[in-house]
Structures are given as C-alpha cells and as structure tokens.
C-alpha cells in the first residue's frame, strides 16, 4: 500500500520515522508493507532521505492512483481541509492528527469518506498517543457516557505540575516551558484552553454522535492561576488541573474547559507533567481512564501510524463512525453544579452573608485574605451569590 | 439481529440487563436492535422475564438460523469449548467473557472464526470493563510492545489495599473479602495468581501474535504477604501489588505473576480496591495505561455487549486478529532483572557477604530481623546469592 504524508513538520517526520523503526512489525500487523511515496511540504529537505519524495502540489498525490492512503499532519483548518477533501474525493483513505480540522470539519469529512467507501481516521487528534477515539467508537458502545473529562493539554499540565512542585508563579513557569520547547512562543492556544476546548468538542461529538461546535464551549485557561492558589490546593489535599469536561444533562451534554481542584482519590489526580489522561464514566461500565503521552513527536506519530495500519486492514471497508452533522445544542453550563473555591478580601461575615454555609480554608503563609469552599450549587447560583461579595480574588471549581 | 446467551450467572444476566437498560443507545450504535432469543442454562428461572427463553440444549441455538451471535458466559473450558466451537461451526459470531477458555483455546477459535467468516471476540476476558483487547489489536499496532504489566485481579487488589490501609494480616482480610462477596469460598484461583496468570497469557499472546501457554508462566500469589511486609513497603514509600507482567526479551517475552513493590511515581501505584489497570510500554508510544472496573456484573457485561455491537456492525466481516496457534517459547524468567526486597533473621555481615552492596530499610515497629533491597540483578543471580544467606523470611520484587 502506498502512502503520502502532507506536512513534514514534527508529527509528519515522526510518522516517517515510526514507519522506518517498526517496519517489520507494522508490515505484519497491516498485512502488507506501507511505503511512503510522497511527502508534501512547501519546503525542500536537502540531505533528508525523503528529499526525493518531496512534492509541492497536493494534486500530484490526489491524481496518483497508486496512493491508497494519505496522512495529514499540517495543522490548521486551511489548506488542510481543501487537501483532505480532495484526497477523499479521489477515493483515498485519510488519517490526520489535526484537531482544528477535525473539530471544525469532522462530521462532514466522515460523511464524505463513507460516501466514497474509504476511511477518515483521527486517533492522534486527541490525547496524542493515547488510544481514545477508537475505544470510544468501538469499545464503550454498550454504555451511555455520562461524563468524559480529560487532561488534554500537555503544556498546561506540565506548567501546573511545575507550579505545584516548585511553588512558582505562572509567568516564570511559562518562560521555563518555552525554553524547554513545551510551550510555543505564542502560548495562547494552550494556556487559554483553546487547544483543550477543540479536543473536548471532538470527544463530545463522538460520545453523543452529533456535531458539537467548539465555539459553544465555555473555556477558561490557566493564566490567572497563582502560587497562592496552589498553596490553598495543597492545604486541601487537592491538585489544580486544567480539565476539559462534558457531562450528560438530559438529552444533551454540558461541556466546559476550566482549571479545577481535584481530590487525591480522583483517577486524574496523579496525572502529572506532559502526560494526558481521559476519564470516562459510563452508566454501566462505571469509571474508566486512559492515560499516556498526550503530545510529542513519536507518541503522536504512533497513533497516526496505528490509523494507517487500520486503513491497510480495512482498505475496502468504511469503518462505521457515529458523528452526524446535525448540531447538538449544548446544555447551558450555568445549570451545571459544582463546589467553588473562592479567595476574597472580604471578611467572614460578608462571606456568610453572600454564600451562607461555607468551609473556610487556611493556607500556610497566606494572610490578608480569606479562602473558602462553597456548598454544591449551579454556576448561575454561584454568580448570583458572588455578585453580593466585594473583592473576589479568585474562583476555582472543586471536584 | 437475534442473539443467544449461554450461562445465566452473574455476567450472563448482566448482559441481558445492559441490553435492556441501554436498549436505545445500543440499537443506534449497532445499527439495529439486538434481541436475546435464547438463554442456555441448566437451571430454570421461574418468575424471571427470560424464563420463556430458557433452553437446556445448546443444539437448539446452534441449529436455529435466526441466531446470528452467541454470548458465552459460562466460565471454564468445558463444556464452554464444545458449545462455542459448535456455534462458530454453525457460522455464528461468538463473544465470551471466559478467560480460561480464551487462554487455552483462543488461537484455535480465532482461526475457526476466520475460516467461517465470523468473529470470536473476548474483550471481557481480561480487565472486565476496561477496553484492552481491542486497543491492543487495533490501536497499539504501530508499536513494538516492550512491556505490558497489569493489576488484573480485583480480589487480590482489594485485599492488598485493605491490608495497606488497615495494617491487617492476609487471613483476616481474606475473610472480610469472602464476607463481602469479593472473594470466593475457595479463593485459590485469585490469591495464588492463577486468574492473573491466564489473563497475562492472553495479553502476551495478543502482543506477540502467537500462542502463549499460561502453564509456562512463573506464578506466585499473595498468600505469603504479611502486615510486616506492608510496613516495610510504606517505609519505602511503595505499595505492594500483585502484578502480571510481560517484558520483551530478544525475540520473545518473559512473563511472570508475582507481588511487587511499586514506587509512587508508577502509573499503577494509585490503582486501589477492586479496580484493575493495564500499563503498556511501546517503543514509540512510551507509557500508556488503561484503568477501570476489572470485575463486577455490569462493567464486565458492558464489555461483552460492546463486543455484540461490534459483531452487529461487522456481521459480514471477519475482523483481523493477530494470534497464531504457533506456540511462543517464553524467555526464562530467571534471566529477567529486578531489584529484590528481602527480610532475614541473619545479621548485616551475613547479608553483605551474600549480596554485597545493599540498601537496608527500617520499618516502624519491626524488630529482630533485617530488611534490605538488593542492587538490580537477574532472578538466577538472586537465587545464587540467597542460597548463601540463612533464614530468609521474605522476598518481594521491587520495581
């Protein structure tokens, strides 16, 4: 089976590397050798073994009948979308690691692949090397999924872990993450939660079988998390994690991305550094969790190549995937209940006046403010009560 | 699609229950309704809604052309094997939760299913509700799996957790587990590691693609673990878990079941109570872990029903599965290296004379003996050195 790789960046070159490293075992699993015939990139790579495979025009790939599958690792919606559509139209299987593309165009590309009797696979788009797309699609099918919650962004998890271990502030840790190459020069997509938001949109779409628009998801990042917040979390025996979560509410789901405090007994509590994990609660399965490397060249490429193996195994079969284009109207996140950790400059009487019964928390070395945890209430109720309290310094949801 | 359930015990009745509870979502995922037409059992169930579906002769099922898939939840090799073979021979898909059957006859039944262009699936045979069989078979296919290590038995994990939390002895905890229904009256299969042994044999077969005989796997249970061992483990910041593990050694694997001490940073460390988890290390993926309910009526039934959904989705397609009947000669476990925790009545000089440099460990309230951890060495080297030391009270491998 001949393949083409579109985009020879970190993941694309990782795909070529994994196909080389594990050539024999992959051939055995796929039932035949998978050979990369073309690599599409704007650049040339003189001296690289793939230089003679470089093409600059995607039509060369689309029009070559020898090409059975195409890997898309360019990132971003355009021109990836135009290229991927052309490949599917030409009857070629596609696998992608591109969460932006999948979140925005997933349902449409799945439908097009079905029409053409090929496959559009995207295991690497969420959770890097962690198998989660195929398990949701073909393993957790006996359940109604009542909750799916993930640590889906390695950069922010690395930063929060480091803040927790070292007691350092956000800005310092961001600089360190940038120096180490874990965070990009413009870290907005990671630290503001936009990356995690697209990923939970994809997972929610697979869970409900309909299109979930990421722009409908309430998203908060970690830029306001401080060393003081971490001190409180530790005093409470909890860890602050950026969680992307969907909970079933009636016939819909409520999705949100925000920092949360997790108790030690939660399966996601020990997930540290650049690792990702996805927690799932099914109505008959109970709790399950999938853990692994959520990013990185080879782990992500491992998931892409596993898709290529599936494509080789099922080259004449469209593998059913439940993600229809009809949009799901998400439930209003303000109706979801949580407990809320709050820091304020106000006094105890003012806190009790606004929130009623709360649990006050002391953190070592923190003075001149109060920290407390509310009872369980909806976001809407929280906002109403919080409006009655002056000088709120911070609010973090508590699981 | 009409189905039959063979064995109306805990899992079999759970399957019927899950099909009822989630009828609508399962129908959507499967593409059609799955209706249970027969339940095979020796007993009758007067008053049970399935009473009018009870049959006592498996041939009624095998000979009914309306039956497309059969669930086997009887347990044990015979008569399950005879019945399952007959169903596959009759061109019916089969799913089973029966680890004994799969460990012993898996390769043969997979080959027979392929010949008949049907499927023989067994997601529930390892890890209960945790998706692991399908992920190994269709997600981790780009990797050479260098290690697979599981907490695969909920009974023993519950017992070890309780011993750790309460400081109690094995015999007391066993009685509690039996009272709670977590351990059977004859607990041998669980506490001696035989159950975990069959499961790691299945996982290793899937990882290497060949038949691994469970009787070749060195297996130690938890019956000799004492409250004193737990004290030492805590002093070292470690947890004692019954691990079933396979590590790649050259072209083969070395498999073993034994209690081990795990450090806090190991992904399996926080897996407590009746939960199961499977840790996988791939050569390009790195570390991954699958966590969830390893036993129990509904979680296990969830995995069986997920197989039924796959069968409905692929009713005319044999899903490729890499598990050939050729036997894999396992590598000798005595060549695998570990560090070893040892308790002895001998003195320091004797310990150093036998083992050279070791790390002595003190545990609160333990007197009149020495505890130490050796350097990393093979099992063979350990045995040679241990033979030089009198009065060894305990040996536990350290990860």
Kindly describe this structure.
- Two copies of one chain form a homodimer.
- Chain A has 399 residues and is an alpha/beta fold.
- Chain A has three domains: 2-129 and 297-321, Rossmann fold; 134-292, Dihydrodipicolinate Reductase, domain 2, CATH 3.30.360.10; 336-398, ACT-like. Chain A, domain 2 (Alpha-Beta Plaits).
- The first copy, chain A, contains 14 helices and 19 strands.
- In chain A, the strands form three sheets. In chain A, strands 7, 9, 10, 11, 12, 13, 15, 16, 17, 18 and 19 form an eleven-stranded mixed β-sheet that branches. Chain A has a six-stranded parallel β-sheet with strand order 3-2-1-4-5-6, sandwiched between helices. Chain A has a two-stranded parallel ribbon with strand order 8-14.
- In chain A, helix 4 (80-89) links the parallel strand 4 (67-72) and strand 5 (93-96).
- In chain A, helix 1 packs across helix 12 (297-313).
- The termini of chain A are far apart.
- The model of chain A has no long low-confidence stretch (mean pLDDT 97).
- The interface between A and B is large, with 55 and 55 residues.
- Strand 13 (286-293) of chain A pairs antiparallel with strand 13 (286-293) of chain B.
Work out the radius of gyration of chain A: 23 Å
CATH topology of the largest domain in chain A: Dihydrodipicolinate Reductase, domain 2
Number of helices of chain A: 14
- Described by the principal axes of the CA atoms, the overall outline of chain A is elongated
The CATH architecture name of the largest domain in chain A reads: 2-Layer Sandwich
Low-confidence stretches of chain A: none
What percent strand of chain A? 25-35%
Enzyme class (chains A, B): oxidoreductase
Protein name (chains A, B): Homoserine dehydrogenase
Catalytic activity (chains A, B): L-homoserine + NADP(+) = L-aspartate 4-semialdehyde + NADPH + H(+)
EC number (chains A, B): 1.1.1.3
């Amino acid at each position: 089976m001949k393949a083409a790789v579109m985009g020879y960046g970190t993941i694309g070159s990782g795909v070529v590397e994994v196909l080389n490293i594990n050539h024999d075992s992959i051939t055995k699993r796929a039932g035949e050798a998978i050979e990369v015939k073309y690599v599409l990139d704007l650049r040339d790579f003189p001296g690289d073994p793939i230089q003679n495979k470089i093409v600059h025009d995607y039509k060369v790939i689309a029009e070559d009948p020898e090409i059975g599958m195409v890997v898309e690792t360019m990132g971003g919606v355009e021109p990836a979308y135009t290229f991927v559509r052309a490949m599917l139209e030409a009857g070629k299987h596609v696998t992608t690691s591109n969460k932006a593309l999948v979140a925005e165009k997933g349902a449409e590309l799945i439908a097009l692949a079905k029409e053409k009797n090929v496959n559009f696979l995207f295991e690497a788009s969420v959770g890097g090397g962690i198998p989660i797309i195929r398990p949701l699609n073909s393993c957790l099918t006996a359940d109604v999924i009542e909750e799916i919650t993930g640590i889906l962004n390695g950069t922010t998890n690395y930063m929060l872990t480091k803040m927790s271990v070292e007691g350092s502030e956000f800005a310092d840790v961001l600089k360190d993450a940038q120096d180490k190459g874990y965070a990009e020069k413009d870290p907005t997509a990671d630290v503001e939660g936009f990356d995690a938001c697209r990923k939970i949109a994809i997972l929610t779409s697979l869970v409900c079988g309909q299109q979930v628009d990421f722009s409908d998801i309430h998203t908060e990042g970690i830029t306001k998390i401080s060393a003081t917040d971490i001190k409180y979390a530790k005093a409470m025996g909890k860890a602050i994690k950026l969680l992307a979560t969907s909970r079933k509410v009636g016939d819909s789901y409520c999705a949100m991305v925000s920092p949360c405090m997790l108790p030690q007994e939660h399966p996601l509590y020990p997930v540290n550094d650049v690792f990702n994990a996805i927690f799932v609660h099914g109505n008959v399965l109970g709790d399950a969790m999938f853990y692994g490397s959520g990013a990185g060249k080879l782990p992500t490429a491992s998931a892409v190549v596993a898709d290529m193996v599936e494509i080789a195994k099922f080259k004449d079969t469209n593998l059913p995937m439940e993600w229809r284009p009809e949009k799901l109207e998400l439930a209003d996140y303000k109706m979801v209940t949580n407990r809320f950790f709050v820091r304020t400059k106000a006094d105890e009487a003012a806190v009790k006046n606004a929130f009623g019964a709360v649990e006050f928390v002391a953190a070592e070395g923190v003075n001149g403010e109060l920290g407390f945890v509310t009872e369980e209430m909806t976001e809407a109720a929280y906002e109403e009560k919080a409006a009655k309290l002056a000088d709120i310094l911070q609010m973090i949801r508590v699981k």
